[in-house]
Write a sequence for this structure.
């Protein structure tokens, strides 16, 4: 008894030591190939990432160990029978490649990781995570067939889309094409043993909805993503273990047309048809006793017409509820009247859909209901967005109801589809038995208003006994990529601009980055690199860019040319077919992905094809000058917006060519190809000399016509000579100031205007340019009622009013005003730079970004007495924090003088900044003003 107090004292003395020995950090947010617990992995060497939660500051990982097993029980017991990496002395925690036994198609694997800090203390093992392999070859599909309900009409196959009414009429005369009926399929199967795991691999073209025992599988919308279907199609993997039941099961699938088959009816931007809608599926059931059962599509499946009576990605969708067959998705349904499915014999390359699926992100309620001058009811949802409607009504008859969505209204308050694709409508024929609800499955549109035909709002006069609408709600659909960043500041205009751009980004984030969510829905490629930083501050797009690059390579020409759109569902002419600023996404975006995520796979995979594109551009050059294409699209000149008006297309095309080549030099070095790097370096030197020889006027000391775009691209790309750089920067600012801070640059040039100004320390000019309501720009658009970014700076009604191509200010809101960047030689935000730039009347801003290492925060306030900033730096990374002060004696961190804090390095940069370098942790700096 007398020894107890002594033992307790010893325990208290040793507890801190024991705690330290056990480690004060943990591993969380495990990812495989940028995704938590993915299915459908096709790479033989998947890569693992994790983040670290550390109690102490300045955490650095010194080592890691990964275990991979083929069962969770083995992993729990510490048996990495597929891979035991052993302890690796490395700080890597992002995209660590698998290096174990061969991974098998259709199998699920389990993994966990632990890490050690710089003192050698280990973390506990992480929680167990899993990943599933996809189907790696044709034989892995177990002889599954592409099935359809109708035969293909061979004379209607159009794999290179037709556009323009003249071209369509010339090719097809008066013939209607693509008028296949929309099918649904079903198959029953028995489950008699205990199920360990079940996965469905599905591709339904154009799009599919899958049901199991009456319930929809997943919450995806418009699966699979659209591709150039004669080159490849995507399949989607679903874990259906919990939806199976003992005994009989029934799987049902409905198909829509998508871009696979575009009917020649209502509106169409292009016409294409690869044949009748079709389905491919394999269900793999692994039983607890080790046996496996597979169910695959074939002629033993049954098919019939679905209640979707019309569907077009461009024209809308009609649904007749009277054609529903209750119970068809359930086991025991009598399908004897259905037809046998047809084996199409069709083949194409199959790839797993690795990008995040489209889903319903938001429900948008009606904010206003009114009658237009034509006597039709219009629902105003208050926001321009991409998506569909959810309709609820009461009906006593089978009176068809049409809903016409639109972005804008005509002067008489009727809906205006003139710039968004007309006619487009959602049509619903009710059963007439009372309360009903419906929403389209296989199309979408960009809209704010919904005009009703054939129904009235509930509670309004209804002398004709029409269906009565109880609710119209907008369903905002978009790619479900994870949110990565947030921004807010004290200036309402900038917050409104942030939302304006963000709505346009989301509305055009589908399975491709589209130009607009209605008229075209095409992947115009310039946006993919010019807006890449802006979009990646908001969303994690690593997986979407994997699909983008497969789309690009699938449409690269034999001569190396990259078209302006990918997938190239239609061939345009002239600059709309081939423009360097568009095709150069193939060079620029892989480098940006490497910068942001530390991911080299796009570079490694596509480097030979990227070389082919550089060779193509070189073949188009005249003495190293490229002068063709659309140029600075939609700049502000004397004419209506379109091709560049203020800047010669040779300026932007040659500048982007030069930039491409400098990036190829960097990527060649990254891949260990010094001879390639030398050749690209020499080519870049020759292009730079030619550019200055052609476009620099030594007497006026100006580039080209001295436009904002011309000066900005020369500055950003590094094309200016050292002795002229300041002059070009001064010319850029002088032009802006001479126009009372009005912008003129367009789709290509404006990003570089902002980049050049920010790099030159002129965020005050950026502020002045973007605080205006009286000249075209963001404030102008807001003042004219825009709720999503418009295609033109002027917010014209004759072009799209939901376009994200001019949203470059988003990048500055995060990097300049918010201050979150990374050091030039850093990748994956390993070394962060926090450098906010307070300007104008902005007194505070809060920006965050979820980097591969964890959450970065820059939260600052500025007043006449002091500048305060709260910074979060994730574990296993570092940050350089710029404080607007010239005196270290005036700076404290959490109330402690800077020089009294261990582990903090600081230096003076000019008379404007004290730069403090810190490790991970949360810091609050105060810089008093003298």
């Amino acid at each position: 008894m007398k020894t107890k107090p002594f033992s307790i004292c010893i325990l208290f003395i040793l507890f801190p030591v024991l705690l330290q020995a056990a480690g004060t950090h943990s591993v969380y947010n495990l990812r495989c190939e940028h995704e938590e617990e993915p299915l459908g992995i096709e790479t033989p060497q998947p890569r693992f990432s994790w983040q670290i939660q550390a109690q102490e500051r300045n955490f650095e990982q010194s080592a890691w160990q990964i275990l991979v097993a083929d069962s969770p029980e083995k992993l729990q017991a510490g048996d990495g029978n597929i891979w035991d990496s052993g302890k690796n002395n490395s700080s890597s925690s992002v995209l660590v490649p698998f290096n174990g036994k061969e991974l098998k198609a259709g199998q699920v694997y389990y993994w966990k990781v632990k890490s050690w800090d710089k003192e050698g203390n280990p973390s506990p093992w992480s929680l167990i995570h899993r990943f599933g392999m996809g189907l790696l070859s044709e034989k892995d599909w177990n002889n599954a067939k592409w099935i359809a309900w109708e035969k293909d009409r061979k004379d209607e196959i159009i794999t290179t889309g037709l556009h323009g009414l003249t071209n369509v009429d010339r090719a097809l005369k008066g013939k209607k094409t693509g008028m296949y009926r929309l099918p649904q399929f079903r198959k029953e199967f028995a489950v008699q043993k205990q199920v360990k795991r079940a996965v469905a691999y599905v591709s339904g073209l154009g799009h599919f909805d899958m049901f199991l025992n009456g319930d929809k599988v997943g919450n995806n919308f418009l699966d699979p993503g659209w591709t150039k279907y004669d080159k490849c199609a995507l399949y989607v993997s679903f874990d259906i273990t919990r939806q199976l039941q003992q005994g009989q099961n029934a799987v049902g699938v409905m198909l829509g047309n998508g871009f696979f088959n575009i009917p020649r009816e209502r509106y169409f931007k292009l016409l294409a048809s690869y044949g009748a809608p079709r389905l491919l599926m394999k269900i793999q059931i692994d039983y607890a006793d080790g046996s496996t059962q597979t169910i695959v599509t074939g002629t033993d499946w049954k098919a019939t017409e679905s209640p979707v009576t019309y569907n077009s990605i461009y024209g809308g969708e009609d649904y007749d509820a009277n054609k529903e067959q209750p119970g068809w998705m359930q086991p025991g349904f009598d399908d004897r009247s259905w037809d046998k499915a047809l084996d199409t014999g069709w083949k194409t390359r199959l790839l797993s859909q690795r990008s995040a699926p489209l889903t319903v992100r938001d429900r948008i309620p009606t904010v206003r209901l009114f009658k237009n001058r034509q006597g039709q009811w219009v629902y105003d949802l208050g926001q321009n967005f991409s998506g569909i409607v959810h309709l609820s009504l009461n009906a006593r008859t089978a009176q068809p109801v049409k809903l016409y969505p639109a972005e804008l209204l005509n002067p008489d308050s009727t809906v205006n589809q003139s710039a968004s694709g007309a006619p487009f409508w959602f049509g619903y024929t009710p059963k007439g038995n009372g309360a009903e609800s419906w929403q389209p499955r296989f199309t979408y549109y960009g809209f704010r208003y919904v005009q009703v035909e054939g129904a009235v709002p509930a509670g309004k006069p209804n002398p004709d006994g029409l269906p009565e609408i109880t609710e119209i709600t907008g369903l905002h659909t978009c790619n479900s990529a994870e949110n990565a960043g947030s921004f807010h500041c004290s200036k309402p205009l900038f917050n409104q601009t942030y939302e304006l751009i963000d709505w346009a980004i989301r509305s055009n984030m589908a399975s491709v980055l589209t130009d607009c969510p209605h008229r075209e829905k095409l992947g115009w490629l310039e946006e993919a690199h010019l807006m890449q930083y802006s979009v990646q501050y908001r969303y994690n797009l690593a997986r979407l860019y994997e699909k983008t690059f497969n789309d690009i390579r699938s449409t690269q020409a034999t001569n190396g040319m990259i078209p302006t759109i990918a997938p190239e569902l239609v061939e345009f002419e002239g600059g709309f077919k081939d423009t360097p600023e568009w095709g150069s996404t193939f060079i620029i975006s892989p480098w940006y992905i490497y910068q942001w995520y530390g991911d080299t796979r796009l570079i490694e995979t596509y480097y030979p094809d990227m070389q082919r594109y550089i060779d193509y551009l070189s073949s188009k050059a005249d003495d190293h000058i490229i002068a063709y294409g659309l140029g600075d699209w939609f700049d502000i000149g004397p004419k209506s917006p379109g091709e560049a008006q203020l800047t010669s297309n040779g300026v932007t095309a040659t500048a982007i060519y030069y930039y491409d080549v400098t990036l190829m030099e960097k990527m060649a070095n990254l891949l260990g190809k010094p001879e390639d790097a030398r050749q690209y370096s020499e080519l870049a030197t020759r292009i730079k000399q030619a550019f200055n020889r052609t476009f620099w006027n030594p007497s006026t000391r100006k580039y080209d016509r001295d436009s904002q775009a011309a000066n900005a691209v020369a500055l950003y790309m590094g094309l200016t000579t050292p002795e002229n750089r300041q002059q070009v920067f001064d010319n850029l600012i002088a032009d802006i100031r001479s126009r009372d801070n009005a912008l003129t640059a367009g789709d290509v040039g404006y990003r570089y205007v902002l980049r050049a100004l920010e790099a030159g320390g002129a965020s005050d000019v950026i502020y002045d340019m973007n605080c205006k309501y009286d000249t075209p720009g963001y404030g102008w658009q807001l003042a004219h009622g825009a709720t999503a970014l418009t295609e033109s700076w002027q917010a014209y009604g004759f072009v799209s009013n939901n376009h994200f191509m001019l949203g470059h200010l988003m990048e500055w809101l995060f990097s300049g005003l918010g201050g979150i960047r990374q050091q030039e030689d850093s990748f994956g935000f390993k070394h962060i730079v926090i450098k906010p730039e307070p300007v104008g009347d902005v007194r505070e801003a809060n920006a965050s970004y979820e980097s591969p290492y964890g959450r970065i925060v820059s939260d600052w306030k500025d007043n006449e007495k002091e500048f305060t900033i709260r910074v979060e730096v994730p574990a296993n990374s570092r940050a350089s924090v710029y404080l607007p002060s010239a005196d270290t004696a005036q700076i404290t961190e959490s109330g402690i003088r800077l020089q009294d804090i261990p582990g903090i390095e600081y230096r003076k940069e000019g008379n404007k900044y004290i730069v403090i370098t810190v490790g991970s942790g949360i810091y609050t700096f105060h810089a008093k003003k003298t």
